[in-house]
Amino acid sequence: MTLPDFRQIVVVTPSAEHPNCAEVLGFKREDLITAFDASLAARKKRNPEFSPSAPIFLPLDSHKRGEVTKPGLKELSTWEVDVPLASVASPQSPNREGMKQFVDRIKREFAELYGAEEKDVDIQIQIKR
Hints:
The protein is α+β, with helices and mostly antiparallel strands. It has 2 helices and 5 strands.
C-alpha cells in the first residue's frame, strides 16, 4: 500500500552466500507493484473472495514447483551488493570478546586489509573526554 510513495525500495536480508554479510537489493517501485499486482490477480482468480488488504508474500529467490522454476523478486532488482555485518559484538552479546581479543582482531584485520604483516601493525585506542 505504501510502495507508490517511494521511487526505490531497498531490501536487506542475510546473505545466503556470505554468512557474515547482509545482501542489500534495490528495486524500482513499478517492478514491485507489477509483481505484487500479478500475485494478487492470480489469488483472486483462484479465490474471488480474497481480500485485497491481505498480506502477500513473494520469495526473493527463484523456487521450483514440480518441473517449473518460478523467478524470485531478486531477478527484478536493479542493483545488489553484499555488505559486511558489524564485526564488533554488542555489549549485551554473550560472545563479547575481551579487550585483548578485540585489539588482536583489529590488528589482524588491518594487516589483511593493507597487505602488511600483523607484527608490523600497532594499534592505539583512546577515549577522548
